[in-house]
Records
---
Amino acid sequence: MPYRFVTGVNDVRNFKDVLGIDFSPKKTCTFDCINCISGRTNILTDKRDEFHPPNDVFSEIETFVNEDHMPEHVLLTGSGEPTLYAGFGTLARMIKERFPDIKVVVYSNFSLLDREEVRREVGVCDIVAGNFYTVCEDEFKKIYRPIESIRLQNVMDGMKIFRNEYDGVFMVDTRFFAGINDTEKNLDGLREFMEKINPHKYYIIDAKYGGNPLPSAFIDLVKSKFDGVPFEVEYRV
Ligand code: SF4
C-alpha cells in the first residue's frame, strides 16, 4: 500500500528500528540552514498549521503497525521543523495511547520551544532530540538563516524552560562548521549553556562544511573544553 505520511523504517543515530513520519509540505521550516539535507526552505514561517488532520496521519501509522511491522520508535519529523505542525500534540498522544510500547521521538530545531503550547505538545514525546550549533547571534544567523522573528535568545530561553519542565530523554547535537562557528567564544558559551541544559546525551559533530573538515587543533580544543562535563558527550569528528 502506498503511504503518504509513513516514510519507512530505519536506524537513526543510536536508535534502532525507527518508523519515520512526515507530515509537512516540502519544505516548511523556521530556518533555512546552510547544511539542510532537504535543500532550501520553500516556506519560511513561524506560523503553526494543521497541514493534515492528525487522524489521517495516525490512521496510516496504525495500518502500517497492524499490517507490516511494530517498530521500537516512531520519529515525528517532517520536511522541515515538525513543531510547525499544529496537529503535533494530538498525533503524539494518539500514538502513545494506542501503542504504549512504541517510543515517540521528535527531532526539532528547538525554535518554537519558547511557546508554552509547543512545549506542552513536545513534552508528550518520550525522546526529544535536536540541533543547537551556537550561542553567538552572528553565527546563528549565518548557519540557520532564520525567519526574522526568531532570535537566538528565543531558542535558548525555550530550551532552558523546556528542560526544566520535561522529564523524558533530551538530546542535543552541535555541528561545527569550519570558518563559521568554530570559535573559542562559541565553545566557551556552548559549554556554559550545555551545563545548564544538562542533556542526557550531547553529540559533537564535524559538519565537514564545504568539504572542509575541522582542523585537528580545533577538535583537541573542543575535547578539552568539554572534558569533565556532567553529561555524556559523543564525538563524531
Ligand atoms: S532546521 Fe532542520 S529542516 Fe529546518 S532548515 Fe535547518 S536542517 Fe533543514
Note: The chain has a mean pLDDT of 96.
---
Amino acid sequence: MQELKNIVLFLMDMDGTLYLENELIPGARDFIYRLIEKKKNYVFITNNSSVNKNNYFEKLKRLDIPCKEKNLFSSGMATGTFLKTQRKGRKVYLVGTKALEEELLKYGVELVEEGAEIVLVGYDRELTYKKLEKACYFLDEGAEFLATNADYLFPLKRGRFLPDCASICMMLTKATGKHPVFIGKPNRYMVDLLREKHGLSKHQVAIIGDRLYTDVACGKNAGITSILVLSGETKVNDLKAATEKPDYVFPSLKEIIEYIQ
Ligand SMILES: [Mg+2]
C-alpha cells in the first residue's frame, strides 16, 4: 500500500466506479473529498462518447461531486485530439451521436457525408441503418477504421446493459472484414495525454476502474498503477480467471480512502 501514497494524479472511471446510472456508489463522494483534502489531482476519464461534457458537469453537480473543466476527459475528447494532431485535415464520416459531432467540431475535425478517408464509430445511441450502410461503403472503399471505445456493453442497474461502441463495430467488422483502432481505454493514449499535461512520471499516476479489459488493461498498457474496484462489472470470479491482475483490488472507493495520505 506504500505505493499509493506516492500517487498524485488519480484517473477515475465513472460508470460502475463512481456511480451506477443516477446513484452514487456509497463512499464515492467521501473518496473525492479526501483527494481534495490531501491536494491530490483527479480526472474523470470516461469511455462514454455518447453525451457531451455538460451532461457530466450537470450530473456530477447533482451528485455533489466537484468537477471542473480540468477534471474531465472523455474518449470523444481524446479522439478529437487524436484527429487534430495525428490525422489533420482528413475527412471523417461519423457514426455517433449529435453530442459527439459537436465535440469533434470543437477540435476542427472535418465531418463529411461523401468522400470519407476515416470512418469513426462512437457509442451511438442514435444509430440508424443508413449510417451503417454508409460506414460499410467507406470502409470498403479503403477508409481507415477508428472507434472511440472498446466497450461491448454499457452497464445499467440490476445487471442490465445496452450495446456499446465495440458491439456496433463488430457488425461493421463482420460486414467488411476490417478491424477498428480504439482510441479510448484500454489504449494508453488518454493516460499518456493526461500524464504529459500534468508533467508526471508513471509511478505518480494511478487508474481506478471497475473493468479488467478497459480500466486495468489501460493502466497496464500505460505502465501506471492500476486499481480495480468490485462495485461495477467485475466480480471476484472474473478476477480469479484474469490473466493480468490489477496492482490493487478494493470492494469500492470507500475502502481506498484511508490510503490517501
Ligand atoms: Mg466503468
Note: The CA atoms of residues 90 and 117 lie 6 Å apart.
---
Amino acid sequence: MALGIDSGTLASLQKLRLEYGDMVSITKPNGRLAYFINDAAEVRRILTRRHSKYHKGPGFERVKMLLGNGLIVSDGDVWRRSRRMIQPAFNRQNVHRLMKVMVECCDRRAVHWAELAANGENCNITSETSDFALELILISVFSSDYESRIMTEGENPFAFLSRDSTRDLSVVMKVRHLRELLQSIIDDRRAGKGSTEFDFLSMYLQATDKEGKPFSDAELLDELMTLIVAGFETSANTLNWVWYLIARHPEVEAKLLVDAAEHLPNVSALSAESLAAMQYTQQVLEEALRLYPPVWLFTRRSHELDELDDFDVAPDTDIYLSPFILHRTEHYWSDPERFDPDRFAPTDKPKKDRPFFPFSLGPRRCLGEYFSFLEMKVHLGLLLPRFRMQLVDEAEPELELSINLRATKDIFMKPTER
Ligand code: HEM
C-alpha cells in the first residue's frame, strides 16, 4: 500500500481500520514501517507527551517547497526557537486588535453579496470565503502595505495558493515572485518605510530569540509564507462547509440568528466579550470542524524509540493519525455522520474521551486557533443576519482529500437580503 497523501488515502486508511482495528502496522513499498493509529488515547499521547520523539512525516516535502523551513514544517531546535519567537504575536490582546480588520473584511463581502442579491445572481460561496480569509490574513500581516504593495499587482498574487498543485512549474515561478515581493516589503520596513500600523509583520520583525537575535530575512520569508498559507485556507474551508451546513439545517440557522441577535445586535456591540458569549455559534463551528477538519490527516516520523502503552515505535517509523476518521468513529461519537451542534453544548460530563483535535494537540497545536474562531464568529455574526443563503444544488458535495480537505467543486448559493 503506497500511502501517499492523495484522494485514495482516506479509502485505504478506512479499509485498514475496518479490517485490522485501531492500530495497524503497514510496510510501505520503500520498506519503511508505518502505523496508522486510530486509538484516541494513543493519538493524544503521541501529539502531547511524546511529541518530541517525532518529526513531521510524509507529505511535508511537498509543503516545504512553499513554506521553506517555516513553523509548520520545521522540527527540533529550529522549530522550538521560531515557536518561542512567534507565539507572543498570537496572544489574545494582539488578536483583539485585529478584530477591526475582521469587520472590514466582512463589510467588503457584504457589499458584493448585496449586489449579487439585487441582481438575482448566485454567489460562489467557496471563492467568497476564500477571498474573505485571504484578504483578512494579508491585511493582518501587512496592514496598509496590502493595498499599496500587494493589490497594486492586479490579481491578488497570493490567490493561486488555494489551488493545490504545488509541483507544477508555474507555481514555482509564482512562489518565487511572491518571495521577491515579500522581500521588498521587508526591506522597506527595515528601512523605516512602509506601514507603521500594528500588524503581524511588525510583530515578527520585533521578535527576538533567547540571545536577543531577530529573524534573518530568509527565516522571516519562510515564517510569513507559513503564516499566510496556514492562516487562510483552513478558515476559508471551514466557513465554506459552515455555510453549506447552515443551508441544509434551517433549525441551526434559526438558532444562530438568535445567538447573533442577542450578542451582536449591531457592529458597535462587537467585542471580545460579545464574541465569547456566542456559545451556539461556537458549537456550530466546532461541529463543522468535527465533520470537516481541514487538516484531515497528520503524519509524523519517529526519530527515536517511543515506548507506547501497547507497542513500541522504532526509530524511522511513519505515523498516520486522522482527525477526520477519529471524529467520525462510532465508538467515540454516536451517530457520527449526523451534523448536531448540540454535541458541543456545555455539560458537566467530561469530554476528554471524545477525540476532537482539528487544531492538533500539544506543543505543536495550531497557533491561530483563537484568531480563527474570532474571525469565523465575526463572519457569521455579521453576515448571516444580513443574508439568507440557499443552496443552488442540494447534492452533497464530494470531498477532496489532499493535503487539506475541501469540496471537490465550488459551492454556489442564492443570496437574499433579510
Ligand atoms: C479553522 C482554522 C484552522 C485550523 C483547523 C488549523 C489547524 C492546524 C493544525 C491541525 C495544525 C498542526 C498541523 C500539524 O502539526 O501537522 C496547525 C498549525 C499551525 N497553524 Fe493552524 N489552523 C487554522 C487556522 C490558523 C490560522 C488562522 C493561523 C494564523 C493566523 C494558523 C497558524 C498556524 C501555525 C503558525 C501553525 C504551526 C504551529 C507549529 O507547528 O508550531 N492556523 N493549524
Note: DSSP finds 16 helices and twelve strands in the chain.
